[in-house]
Amino acid sequence: MLQYLAERSADLQVRWIGGHRGLESTVVPAAGHRLDLLTLRTLRTVDLSLATVMDPVRLLVSVPQAMAMLGRWRPDVVYTTGGYVAIPTLAAAATLRVPSLLWEGNRLAGRSVRTTARLATALACSFAGTAAALPGRTYTTGTPIRSFAGVDRAPARAALGLPEEGPVVLVFGGSQAVRRLNEAVADALPRVLGAVTVLHLTGETAYADALRRREALPAGRRERYRVFPFLGDEMASALVASDLLVGRAGSSTLAEAAAVGLPLVVVPYPHAAAHQAANARELADVGAAELVADEAFDGHAFERACAILADEPRRAAMAAASRSLGRPGAATATASLLLDLAERGPLPDATRIERETRAMA
After folding, report:
1. Domain residues of the chain, as ranges?
2. For residue 52, what pLDDT band results from cuts at 50, 70 and 90?
3. What is the DSSP letter of 31?
4. pTM exceeding the 0.70 threshold for the entire prediction
């Protein structure tokens, strides 16, 4: 989304507020942005321990810290994606009358979002049902995702070493390796490669085993199993090149699949307050996805997933349903909303934001 903000605002300056223990301590400086840390820890403690007592103290201390930071920087607008660090940041922004946008990517709003929703000037949500359940001025923006502009199917397949013709199943567990998915693929692989090509993103820890498994395949089948530990910029090509996605139900994964009209078989992560199950049901309810419980996903379940591609009417109906939910312009719409807030004029019309979310970036 920063790319779209930079295109619209030539003198864009970004300052980042984070907490201890979060990924931002390595990711943000690597991206070239200034990072300031509050006393609180980004990840809330669940188990009973000394940290259970200290976390509320850290939170209280972080409120004046955030106020001091915003007072020095004088930002035009504050953008937060929720989480523990959003509480002091939004409290400070509201006190100093700095416009703010709070974004919620899950269907079930997190505790911090529910707690701070009234402090934000406006809220942006991935799902319409989430927006309807939260107080204040809400917009359904979808999830900001990468651009698919200029990514075409044939070159994408060639770049990833995939066959020009025939169905491709993309197996992707999200930002971390998913043992459940990897074991299911390993079990079913000899039985499915005759009908489909499997593009498997294993994660770093499972990559070596998957390579050995690939080398053990008969020569005629080996090229139908493409293995990568992960993909960066090439992920757009992987999604466009594929005909079915098998994976978890993170907000970004679902949003990118819908943006390119990709049917899904979703295995929601069973923990974290069932956020992923709620996300996945949004797609399943319109026929874009099939849900399989984590404990039920095995080699036979992966076989059944691959069989969807042999039923062309079913696959096409799922693809159309997926595309109907797509908001490929979510990043541009959210950037547009942020700039409107920064200008401190009237809040934009929800219809205009909706139209921008549906436009291909």
Report:
1. 2-145+328-358, 153-325
2. low
3. T
4. yes
